[in-house]
């Protein structure tokens, strides 16, 4: 796995704290230098004001190079086979000449080590491949903050020439909605026989899925997987038509043997062709871009508010008043907002 380096000085030490200048980030990423890409992602993950300014400049310069990829969200409960699936499908995609980036949003990664490790032990062969870039979930901050960084990371990866982006998340609710808001196609992995047909996955997640693949359809499990496939198909019939006009596909596959994996990718490309021909693809991306603008404003305002010394000096006392019932939540919020505005 030899990253192509434009400038040997750029890749001397990926953990070096010595900052690169904006030109070096931009040129390195355009040249597909993975070490520079990693450092740029670290830059956008940084909360330091100086890094934020540099990160914004890097993003602005690279935006015209971004966008040329298929962005695929992959979700499913832990153990369903997401990493095995991405490894299997990913190897066939890179064999076909695609360049693949695998990112993750794991809301549990801050508290625990996370359900998605996204590291080299999980996708052993894939992570060795020179056409693959794997980045684990950012660990700090709220889901909103983590998501914004992942959204920017998608753009950086595209500017670096990755034409297929997988964003993996665990089936635990809010994180799917977040991933759904940054991908073109949303793939739900399920397994047969986990009790109820929806397997603890919220109905809303099934409703978001463009493609459902029942994994582990191998050995004795094939018949059960096919039964689950029919259950999902029946369940989907009760759902209202999708905005994209696409009828969600339900397939079976085995990430272990590779059976059906190609068919899942065919469904992805059919979905992309369909939505590109109707214009939904571009429309969805534009809506997502506006959504992320608003999310970023919200996030920045919140950060600015809570880090303001005028707010900090009063926050504890006012919160105590809310907790002991001497002040309403609304009056408290108004007082803090006034303090914030006056301090500006
Ligand atoms: P994740 O938590 O969703 O990423 O799931 P993993 O990819 O780590 O897989 C969980 C377990 O299921 C591992 O032991 C895999 O070897 C196994 N597994 C994954 N896909 C398949 C499959 O298609 N068939 C079978 N039999 N086992 C699988």
Automatic annotation (TrEMBL):
It comes from the Bacteria. SUPFAM superfamilies: P-loop containing nucleoside triphosphate hydrolases (SSF52540). One of its GO terms (cellular component) is cytoplasm. Belongs to the SIMIBI class G3E GTPase family. ArgK/MeaB subfamily. GO terms for molecular function: GTP binding; GTPase activity. This is Methylmalonyl Co-A mutase-associated GTPase MeaB. InterPro entries: GTPase_ArgK, P-loop_NTPase.
